[in-house]
Design goal:
This protein is α+β, with helices and mostly antiparallel strands. It has helices spanning 11-20, 33-36, 57-70, 120-128, 144-149, 157-160, 188-194, 230-240, 283-295, 351-356; strands spanning 24-26, 50-53, 74-77, 93-96, 103-106, 111-115, 132-133, 167-173, 179-183, 203-210, 212-213, 217-226, 248-256, 271-279, 307-308, 368-371. It is globular. The structure holds flavin-adenine dinucleotide (FAD).
Length: 373
């Protein structure tokens, strides 16, 4: 065990802090300590000397001053999803914002003020009550804090920019325990750093974002291909996206197929290319936007393979699987035509389609109607 790991804070050392602190203070061995130090990456196993579960910005100030006076290492936890586990430290003070959940939407100015401990699902739920949203992550359980400070990529980014393009202001506690409101006018340099520079510019206790009308219904869903088809599918995507409407969000994932019900069991845990498609515009237009992609043999017209499905929302699919069976994304580059579907030579079938059978190719694609929350 290293020197820092051995740091122990006795009751008398934290008595003063405890008297001023509204949230919870947890030391090793105390109830809730092990749960609070756990983060998304299960391989991270660090032991802070103290976990300060803050109830508000004043608690954050108290915790920062406490650590500063004792020269203790500080880590900051938002949603706890940073893979490197920077939210939790050995032997120092972990300042945990995950109890700070307030969100106040102003539908008039289309803005939201959001506390630093919110997850994206929680913020989306608050803004969707007004039919509004901002660009957040594609996974609902990431924290708004770490994601925003890192830039923020999400389904809406082609239409509305990155998360930081919608960031208007940050409430910050600095390393010397001061509280600042940071925006483009008051603190331009600091604001610039916060818009994508990661952590370490201070502790963000609240964020203000610009909102946009989105939903409550969007079209969307994941589509998967066997990894062997990835080069062909990605080539088509490369050609398609420069002309695609901004409302169409596409996220690419190279991963093992998840063992979920919408993926046939024989494909579970096999390497796949996944595209998560979201149409966040007018629904009728979304339907029309699919048509040219189908004509061009785009990924949405889907080769066979692991299949695709829901997962993106709770609303029943409409139009899912409605495509006529036809050949695949990689079609245009193949010199041969498909033995089964006899697609014309100008759009012959892909190797994937030949392998899996064209009659199945369109049927599993789910361009679904999904609720945005
Ligand atoms: C499953 C998964 C899906 C993801 N999807 C996306 C995605 O769609 N788009 C995308 O852009 N990124 C995505 N990411 C990356 C994610 O945005 C980063 O890991 C981000 O840092 C997570 O933020 P957090 O608040 O959950 O994490 P934390 O681990 O709590 O924090 C991350 C970093 O930010 C610091 N920090 C946290 N809160 C504050 C605060 N209030 N003030 C100052 N510093 C703070 C922490 O100290 C740490 O260094 C994903 C990650 C995972 C694991």
């Amino acid at each position: 065990m290293s020197m820092v790991e051995a740091t122990v804070l006795g009751s008398e050392q934290i008595a003063g802090l405890r008297a001023r602190f509204r949230g919870a203070l947890l030391r090793p061995g105390e109830e809730g300590y092990d749960e609070a130090r756990r983060v998304w990456n299960g391989a991270i196993d660090r032991h802070p000397a103290l976990i300060a579960r803050c109830a508000g910005a004043d608690d954050v100030v108290e915790a920062v001053r406490f650590a500063r006076e004792r020269g203790l290492l500080v880590s900051v936890r938002g949603g706890g999803h940073a893979v490197a586990g920077h939210a939790v430290c050995d032997g120092g003070v972990m300042i945990d914002l995950s109890l700070m959940k307030a969100a106040r939407v102003d539908p008039g100015t289309r803005t939201v003020r959001a506390a630093g401990g919110l997850l994206w699902s929680e913020l989306d739920r608050a803004t969707q009550r007004f039919g509004l949203a901002t660009t957040g992550g594609i996974i609902s359980h990431t924290g708004i804090a770490g994601l925003t400070l890192g830039g923020g990529l999400g389904h809406l980014m082609r239409k509305h920019g990155l998360t930081v393009d919608n960031l208007l202001a940050v409430d910050l506690v600095t390393a010397d325990g001061r509280r600042l409101r940071v925006d483009a006018e008051t603190e331009p340099e600091l604001f610039w750093g916060l818009r994508g520079g990661g952590g370490n510019f201070g502790i963000a206790t609240a964020f203000e974002y610009r909102l946009h009308p989105v939903g409550p219904i969007v079209l969307g869903g994941p589509v998967f291909w066997p990894i062997a088809d990835a080069p062909a599918v990605l080539r088509v995507l490369r050609d398609l996206m420069p002309d695609a409407p901004d409302e169409l969000g596409v996220t690419i994932a190279l991963r093992l197929a998840p063992p979920t019900p919408f993926v046939p069991p024989e494909h579970h845990s096999k390497p796949v290319l996944g595209l998560v498609l979201v149409w966040a515009g007018d629904l009728a237009e979304g339907g029309r936007a699919r048509a040219p992609r189908r004509r061009r043999g785009a990924p949405g017209a889907a080769p066979g393979g692991p299949g695709a499905g829901a997962g993106a929302g709770r609303a029943p699919a409409r139009g899912a699987g409605a495509r006529a069976p036809r050949c695949a994304a990689s079609a245009r580059r193949s010199p041969t035509s498909c033995a089964r579907c006899r697609t014309s030579s100008s759009n012959p079938c892909s190797t994937a389609a030949r392998r899996t059978g064209c009659t199945t190719t369109g049927s599993r694609i789910a361009f679904r109607r999904s609720r945005t929350t």
